[in-house]
Design a protein that fits this description.
- The protein has about 425 residues and is α+β, with helices and mostly antiparallel strands.
- It contains twelve helices and twelve strands.
- The chain has helices at about 35-50, 65-70, 185-195, 205-210, 230-240, 245-255, 275-285, 320-335, 355-370, 390-395, 405-410, 415-425, and strands at about 5-15, 15-20, 85-95, 100-110, 120-125, 140-145, 150-155, 160-165, 300, 315, 345-350, 380-385.
- Strand 4 and strand 5 (about 120-125) form a beta hairpin.
- The longest helix is centred in the last third of the chain and has 18 residues, at about 320-335.
């Protein structure tokens, strides 16, 4: 599904902002202190805060009232405008998945003369790419409080425009049951709730630059301090191998002199896709594009080491992999019951007794299903051993695993490594299918 875009925001009587701001995929707001940059960002935050539950709801504070308090309560009014007065926010959305392609959420807030609560004076949701006063007979999903506070009309697919009453003026109708079942409500709430906001004053550049991705972290959104930047970049690259190139192209457009941005682990903590576990997922996805693969046993430090290797390495011994199956599989089955079509278990051969090791893996999986407290249908179990190690499979699919990773693309290391392996080690680089 295409991503919904915020195409414009219109404000009236809101602090020192007035008029319509048209938005693109990338927008830079430049101005001196006090020019309204923070106020503009807060107008976006306000809408998100209107639909996000608050901890004080049990104390009689509604989500809307909490959102208003965060942008100044009655102080949201332009100081040059006399109370009582209206403050207006209108948000234009485009690129909706189904017709209509554009819609507008239009809010007018009443700021009383005395120090009373700010309330919703009007709330409209309508089709269009501009304000309703500039449209000819716009279609309204709802018009609330426009004639009388607490009353309005809502579109019903079977009955057309229907009158409603007892509508709260201290909560956003978009976040209520009024449009239950409407796709547009689901789309807007999902889009707005995923907006992310960051403030450079809360960030430590040194900490961000020196941070390393944490093993097992699945973050794809930055934290408020951005100290998980390395982890987010790495996870997004693992999801989409072209993400790094697109990221750096975008950065270069803004800051041409910026050096390449990439996520780097220390030698003791190599990225997942540099190791067999992460590369294997890419390998499987490439050869089985109609299937979805998700690794459930995280990489952990395993004790001891192998010959000519550091004392601590990353991966699983056969025994620890069985322990991880017993630990992680019940969690996955509980969170996603009956969503798995096949359980794949991969391990290095390492000169083990194949049949005995396979039996131990299958026994561990069966034990999980037998002891489960919920009704589960057990999918087929497939156990595979790589000879000599799983890395050999990745070499066979070099261009879609190891060679794709950022650390190997710097200074064309992947080409140099491939040349060395093929010319000196006589390894053939031919893609194989399991």
């Amino acid at each position: 599904m295409s991503q919904i875009h915020l195409s414009f925001i219109y404000t009236q009587n809101y602090k020192n902002l007035m008029g319509q701001f048209n938005l693109n995929n990338l927008n830079l707001f430049i101005g001196s202190n006090g020019s309204g940059k923070s106020n503009l960002i807060n107008s976006f935050k306000f809408l998100k805060n209107c639909i996000i539950p608050v901890a004080d709801s049990s104390q009689g504070v509604s989500i809307f009232e909490d959102a208003i308090s965060k942008i100044g309560s009655s102080k949201i009014l332009d100081i040059n405008v006399e109370k009582p007065a209206l403050v207006r926010f209108a948000y234009g959305f485009s690129n909706l998945a189904n017709p209509p392609e554009n819609c507008v959420l239009d809010l007018s807030l009443f700021v009383p003369k005395q120090q009373l609560r700010v309330s919703i004076y009007k709330e409209y949701l309508y089709i269009g790419s501009s304000l309703h006063e500039h449209l000819k007979d716009p279609f309204y999903y709802y018009k609330l409080h426009d004639q009388l506070s607490g009353k309005g009309t809502v579109f019903d697919e079977h009955l057309g425009m229907t009158e409603v009453e007892n509508i709260s003026n201290t909560s956003l109708a978009l976040n209520s049951e009024l449009l239950q079942g409407h796709d547009i409500k689901t789309l807007l709430l999902s889009t707005i709730s995923n907006w992310q906001f960051y403030n450079a004053n809360n960030m430590d550049l040194k900490e961000i630059r020196e941070s390393e991705p944490k093993i097992g972290g699945g973050d794809i959104y930055l934290s408020s301090s951005c100290n998980n930047l390395a982890l987010v970049i790495e996870n997004l690259i693992n999801q989409d191998l072209d993400f790094e190139e697109r990221l750096n192209e975008a950065i270069k457009l803004i800051l041409p002199q910026t050096r390449r941005i990439r996520s780097i682990r220390s030698e003791r903590d190599k990225p997942n896709s540099m190791l067999e576990n992460g590369g294997l997922i890419n390998f499987l996805r490439k050869h089985f594009p109609n299937c979805t693969f998700e690794r459930k046993t995280p990489i952990r430090k395993k004790p001891g080491g192998k010959a000519n290797k550091p004392n601590i390495s990353y991966g699983k011994t056969g025994i620890s992999l069985i322990a991880q199956i017993k630990e992680q599989l019940p969690i996955a089955l509980k969170n996603e019951p009956n969503q798995c079509s096949l359980i794949l278990i991969f391990d290095d051969l390492d000169c083990r007794n194949v049949e005995q090791q396979k039996e131990e893996f299958v026994k561990a999986v069966n034990k999980v299903f037998e002891s489960s407290s919920i009704d589960l249908s057990k999918p087929p179990i497939f156990v595979a051993f790589a000879a000599p190690e799983i890395e050999s499979w990745l070499i066979a699919d070099w261009d879609n695993s190891i060679a794709k990773h950022t650390d190997f693309r710097i200074n064309k290391r992947h080409e140099k490594m491939r040349y060395w392996l093929s010319s000196q080690c006589k390894i053939s680089f031919i893609s194989i299918i399991l």
